[in-house]
C-alpha cells in the first residue's frame, strides 16, 4: 500500500514539475515577445536621435527577468521579503535620460508582472494599446506647443569634475541661448557624468556645437550623447 502511494506521489510530482517547466517557458517566451514590441516602438520613436543600445536591450530583458522573478517568488511571503532584501543591496547605476524612458521601463516591468501572474490577456492588451498610444504621440507630436523651442540633451563624461565642468559651461555660454544642468552622476572622486538641457542661440548649429565640444575636450571630457537632429 505504501509503495503504491509513494509511486503515485512520485508520478504526480513528475507531472507537476513538467507542467511547471512548460508554464515558465511559455510565460518567458510571451514576455520576451511583448517586451520586444516595446523595444521596437522605442527604437522607431527615437530613430532620429542617438539612443543607447543598452537601454533598448534592458527593455527586453526587464520583461523577461520580472517574469522569472515572479515565478521564483510565487505566493511565498518569505521569498518576497527575501527578494526585497536582495534588491535593496544592489546599487543601480542606470540613468534614464527622460521621463518617457522611465515610462517605457515601467511598461516593460508591467508586462513581466502580467506574464509572471499568468495574466497574458492583460499583458497583450497593455502592450498593444500602449504601443499604439506611443506611436500616436510620436506621429502627432502630442503635447508639444506649436511654437516650441527646440530643447536638446547633452550628456558628458568628465575626468575632473570641477575643471571640466567649467570648460563645458564656458562653451555653452558662447554657443547657446540658455542651458541648465539636470543631473550629476558621480563615478568616483573626480569622474562624473553630467546631463544638460540646452537651447541653441540660433547662430551656432548643432553640428558646430558638437564639433566645438570635440575640439576643446582636450582629454578633459567626452560626449556621450547629443541630439543632433530634431524631427
Question: Would you give an account of this structure?
Answer:
- This protein is of the alpha+beta class and 231 residues long.
- The chain has two domains: 2-140, no CATH class; 152-226, Alpha-Beta Plaits (2-Layer Sandwich), CATH 3.30.70.150.
- The chain has helices spanning 2-45, 53-73, 77-88, 99-116, 120-140, 161-175, 206-216; strands at residues 152-158, 176-186, 192-200, 221-226.
- A four-stranded antiparallel beta sheet has the order 2-3-1-4, with helices on one face.
- A hairpin with a 5-residue loop joins β2 and β3.
- α1 (2-45) packs antiparallel against α4 (99-116) and α4 runs antiparallel to α5 (120-140).
- The protein is elongated and about 60 Å long.
- The termini are far apart.
Write the topology of this structure.
Layout: H1 2-45, H2 53-73, H3 77-88, H4 99-116, H5 120-140, E1 152-158, H6 161-175, E2 176-186, E3 192-200, H7 206-216, E4 221-226
Antiparallel strand pairs: 1-3, 1-4, 2-3
User: Major sheet: order of its strands?
Assistant: 2-3-1-4
The total of helices stands at 7
Strand share of the residues? 5-15%
**Unreliable residue stretches:** 12-16
- Helix and strand composition category: alpha+beta
Mean pLDDT: 78
Indicate the percent of residues in helices.
55-70%
Separation of the first and last Cα atoms: 76 Å
Count of strand segments: 4
The tally of domains stands at 2
Provide the gyration radius in Å. 24 Å
Amino acid at each position: 500500500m505504501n509503495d503504491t502511494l509513494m509511486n503515485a506521489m512520485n508520478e504526480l510530482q513528475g507531472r507537476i514539475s513538467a507542467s511547471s517547466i512548460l508554464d515558465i517557458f511559455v510565460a518567458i517566451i510571451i514576455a520576451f515577445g511583448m517586451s520586444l514590441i516595446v523595444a521596437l516602438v522605442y527604437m522607431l520613436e527615437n530613430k532620429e536621435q542617438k539612443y543607447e543600445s543598452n537601454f533598448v536591450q534592458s527593455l527586453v530583458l526587464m520583461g523577461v527577468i520580472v517574469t522569472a522573478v515572479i515565478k521564483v517568488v510565487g505566493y511565498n511571503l518569505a521569498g518576497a521579503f527575501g527578494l526585497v532584501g536582495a534588491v535593496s543591496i544592489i546599487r543601480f547605476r542606470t540613468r534614464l535620460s527622460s521621463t518617457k524612458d522611465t515610462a517605457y521601463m515601467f511598461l516593460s516591468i508591467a508586462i513581466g508582472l502580467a506574464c509572471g501572474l499568468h495574466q497574458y490577456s492583460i499583458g497583450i492588451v497593455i502592450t498593444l494599446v500602449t504601443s499604439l498610444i506611443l506611436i500616436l504621440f510620436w506621429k502627432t507630436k502630442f503635447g508639444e506647443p506649436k511654437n516650441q523651442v527646440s530643447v536638446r540633451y547633452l550628456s558628458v563624461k568628465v575626468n575632473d569634475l570641477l575643471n571640466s565642468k567649467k570648460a563645458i559651461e564656458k562653451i555653452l555660454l558662447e554657443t547657446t541661448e540658455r542651458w541648465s544642468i539636470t543631473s550629476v552622476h558621480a563615478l568616483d572622486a573626480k569622474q562624473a557624468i553630467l546631463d544638460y538641457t540646452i537651447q541653441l542661440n540660433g547662430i551656432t548649429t548643432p553640428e558646430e556645437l558638437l564639433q566645438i565640444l570635440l575640439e576643446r575636450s582636450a582629454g578633459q571630457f567626452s560626449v556621450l550623447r547629443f541630439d543632433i537632429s530634431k524631427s
